[in-house]
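Renewal narrative, Specific Aim 1. Our central claim is that a sequence can be written position by position from structural information alone. The example that follows is taken directly from our test logs and has not been curated for this report. It begins with the structure tokens describing the chain, in the order in which they were read.
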């Protein structure tokens, strides 16, 4: 299993990307929530609102997921792939039922 941690500008973007991924069976579940981001840029420290999107899916779908994201936004964002080493059996069973094997999903 893989999880993706993605930063976006708005909840509307997160919802649109989530629904697109779910409809294309590239994810079994997504979560999004507002956060505050502090960062350093051009010698200044700034902060602003962001939205984090978490995608729960199978291994090997990063390219397809990034393609979906790029269809919804046109700015540079953060996409981190997180390996999941342990997961409860019932969730894994749900994931297997809802997200087809890689060769079927692409």
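The sequence written for that structure reads:
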């Amino acid at each position: 299993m893989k999880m993706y941690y993605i930063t976006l500008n708005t909840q509307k973007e997160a919802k649109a990307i989530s629904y697109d991924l779910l409809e294309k069976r590239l994810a079994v579940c997504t979560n999004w929530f507002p956060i505050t981001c502090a960062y350093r840029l051009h010698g200044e420290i700034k902060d602003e609102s962001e939205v984090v999107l978490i995608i729960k899916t199978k291994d090997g779908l990063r390219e397809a997921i990034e393609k979906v994201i790029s269809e919804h936004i046109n700015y540079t964002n953060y996409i981190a792939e997180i390996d999941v080493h342990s997961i409860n059996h019932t969730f894994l069973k749900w994931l297997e039922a809802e997200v087809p094997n890689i060769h079927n999903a692409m």
